[in-house]
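so my prof wants the structure for this chain in the tokens format not the other one, which i didnt know existed until like an hour ago. anyway here's the sequence
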Amino acid sequence: MKATEVPEISGAYLFEPTPHADERGFFCRTFDADVVRSVGLDPAAFVQDSVSRSVRGVLRGLHLRSGAGEAKLVRCSYGEIFDVVVDLRADSPTYLGRAFFELSGETQATVYIPAGCAHGFQSLTETSDVSYRIDRPHDPAEDVTIAFDDPDLAVPWPLPVTSVSARDREAPSLVEVLKRREG
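here's what i got, hopefully its the right format
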């Protein structure tokens, strides 16, 4: 497994495993504590795993957490997604930086997203399963959502959006979220 820094987002990493394929399918290590530790992350810090299933065109995000934030590992375990990370840490050298990834069940690559960064994705296949490993128990009271179609972010979503949650559809702009955080 190889770990690569994401230049657009300070402290973010892309973990790329080596799937071993044969006539039966493939086998792949999707998490390696030693590799995670080698880039300065504590593998024991992750306390909760979740999975979402989406259909083609579904968009989830852009989400982050208030307070101490939430670091996470995100991997598409089946299908393919267009994944987005936005750095919203005011003290970060990559503040407002954006990074885009195509994650898939074929590659099993994982993105580490530091606390204070917004995250979202769009399903590119008929079915996509996304696995999340987070470093704090989820608290819905800390959920923050930014409009996925915010013109200041200009995320180049690759497909027409077929479905979003009411929360995502009604999300405030980036400017509004930043004003709330300052106040």
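also thought this was worth mentioning. The chain has a mean pLDDT of 95.
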